[in-house]
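TOKENISE THE FOLD
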Amino acid sequence: QVQLVESGGGLVQAGGSLRLSCAASGRTFSSYAIAWFRQAPGKEREFVAAIMWSGGSTYYANSVKGRFTISRDNPQNTVNLQMNSLKPEETGVYYCAASRFFAGTTGAYDYWGQGTQVTVSS
């Protein structure tokens, strides 16, 4: 059974940093894209960043370019999201997801984690 388990969320002050991790299990993700989405209260889930498990190509939402870095740790089967210079409006639940191809929309993703809360205080 495929599982994506997020960790690393928490409370941080504006301008601070957090590192999220997504542990993947249950199948081979070598041809998959692993992405992070986030959802603020009352808003739609939005794309943050993605990485191709094979090859390592990365994709970012314009709003996080230069501040967030997505990476993969093949031996550990994890994808990490380093988030720097966080802003209060980036508060929300952050989800890890897997798709057979890269897309910036939720509908393309077959598997989802339960999410981890990130709260950025002003």
